[in-house]
Amino acid sequence: MEEYRDNDVAWAVLESTINKAVDSGNHEIIEDCIKAYPSTIWVTASVFYLFHLAIHERQERVYNLVYQMGNDKSSVASYVDPETRENALHIVAKLAPARRLKTVTGAALQMQRELQWFNEWMKGTASSSTIVAALIVTVAFAAAFTVPGGNINEGKDEGKPVYLNNGAFMVFIISDAVALFSSVTSVLMFVGILTSRYAEDDFLYTLPKRMTIGLISSFLSLTATVVAFGATLSLVLLDKVKWIIAPLVIMACIPVALYALLQFPLLYELLNNTYGRSIFHRENRRMIH
């Protein structure tokens, strides 16, 4: 009798431990419990079985322990609660507890309402970025036909740029071409965002991909425009002001660095969330059951 009573106490303590560990997302404790007592995977905590509770609480790191299981993986994944007649898919389809929805701020956490906010943010960012990119297109296109120093007006080289054989002039031409092509790409990407159908699948890959390409192209066009402007000044002033190169380089780095500081955190988040590691994965290579 004492043995049964001790077992009941032990299981009660284990259930309480499992419940608190899942609630806090402490997958290490769950892993140790399963390794010590394999039947832990069938423990009932807060009405739910272990992995059903992990799904209900949206604790993906606890649920990821499924990927470290062997033959019982399919049994756990397809298990149907005899009382509620629900499996894991039924629990996934239900809205997460309010405390879990409020733990992290993000676009994809509160589904429809948050998608609407994400939609508005995408449109606003794309609209403002399109204006900047369009201005760079205009400047780069005009600069290609108004080269610094003008053109030769007589002789066999008539019509050719005066500084054609100058290294700084080649820097100007290449930078201007990069600025034009990258800014056109940026405009196309941002227009693609504004004219998107905004379907559910678009928010997962299509829109973030367009935003990523647009931001990278915008950064390249801005950098190339600044380089082209610096090359033009060096062509015009280098013969008269020998020390102009150093101030030009320093001043050119300021807007490029500011743009990078402002936009790279957003670009990193887009790349990480779109192409990074999925939230569902093996926590480590050890088998626990």
UniProtKB/TrEMBL annotation:
<dbReference type="GO" id="GO:0016020">
    <property type="term" value="C:membrane"/>
</dbReference>
<dbReference type="Pfam" id="PF13962">
    <property type="entry name" value="PGG"/>
</dbReference>
<dbReference type="InterPro" id="IPR026961">
    <property type="entry name" value="PGG_dom"/>
</dbReference>
<feature type="transmembrane region" description="Helical">
    <location>
        <begin position="244"/>
        <end position="268"/>
    </location>
</feature>
<feature type="transmembrane region" description="Helical">
    <location>
        <begin position="169"/>
        <end position="194"/>
    </location>
</feature>
<protein>
    <recommendedName>
        <fullName>PGG domain-containing protein</fullName>
    </recommendedName>
</protein>
<feature type="domain" description="PGG">
    <location>
        <begin position="120"/>
        <end position="235"/>
    </location>
</feature>
<keyword id="KW-1133">Transmembrane helix</keyword>
<keyword id="KW-0812">Transmembrane</keyword>
<keyword id="KW-0472">Membrane</keyword>
<feature type="transmembrane region" description="Helical">
    <location>
        <begin position="131"/>
        <end position="149"/>
    </location>
</feature>
<feature type="transmembrane region" description="Helical">
    <location>
        <begin position="215"/>
        <end position="238"/>
    </location>
</feature>
